[in-house]
Amino acid sequence: MVAGHYAAALITAAHKVKAPFWLLLLCSQIPEFLWLLLATLGIEPTLPASIFDATFANIEVDMRFSHNLVPGIIQGIITGICVFAFYRSTGVALWCSALVVIHVLCDYIVGFSHQIMWYSSPAIGLNSYRHMPYIAILIELAFALGCVAYFQIKRTDRPLGKSRLTWLYLLFAIGILVWMPAAKIPLRSWFGF
Q1: Which of 58, 148, 157, 189 has the least CB density, counted as fewest CB within 10 Å?
Q2: Which of 70, 162, 22 is nearest to 9 (CA)?
Q3: Left if phi > 0, otherwise alpha if psi is -120 to 50, otherwise beta: which for 112?
Q4: For residue 47, what is the DSSP state?
Q5: Residues 183 and 59 sit within 8 Å (Cβ to Cβ)
Q6: Tens digits of per-residue pLDDT, 159-184?
Q7: Is the separation of the CB atoms in 188 and 52 below 8 Å?
Q8: How far apart are the first and last CA of the chain?
């Protein structure tokens, strides 16, 4: 998943967790930010090196520290400890931890191949970006739109107005579907450079 992870923050927000929304968005993407940092440092290399040559079907990713199950759980625990230290709220800390782990679990369905621990451990991810990238993007879209609907249903005391709700649906739909062309055709081919 790419943009769909942000939608998971709406699940937490729907439960009226007393935390700033930006914190929920940040926690929902911690494995992604860690991966980008580790890829930049050469610890989790990604090929092809240029995003303009990459497609979901041809990219080779090494996400052993950022997206495998055990490291993801460890990230969730560390996130929870840090959030608790700052907010002194067990509920906020647990929800923020859950967002990190939800990120990793979602990537087992929509994402690349991931293992339990390291590359020598069993792969449990579907590797849907490699085998069925268009369907994977549509699954991500369904997840995100489901999160928006859940948010609206749970917020009975303050539901979003029709205009804001429409914009929220559009934001996720466009943010996810924009990746559809890059599922099998590199951006360099689309933009001609």
Answers
A1: 157
A2: 22
A3: beta
A4: E
A5: no
A6: 889 999 999 999 999 999 999 988 98
A7: yes
A8: 26
Q: Residue 8 in contact with residue 31, Cβ under 8 Å? A: no
Q: Which structure tokens are listed for 75? A: 């990230």
Peptide bond into 71 cis (omega under 30): no
- 0.85 cut: is pTM over it? yes
> Can you name the residues that pair with 46 across neighbouring β-strands?
61
Burial call 49-79: b when 16+ CB within 10 Å, e when fewer: eeeeebbbbebebbbbbbbbbebbeebbeeb
Measured N-to-C along each axis, helices 69-87 and 30-40 cross at an angle, to the nearest 10 degrees, of: 110
Neighbours of 90 (CB within 10 A): 11
Q: Work out whether the CA dihedral 19, 28, 91, 16 comes out positive or negative.
A: positive
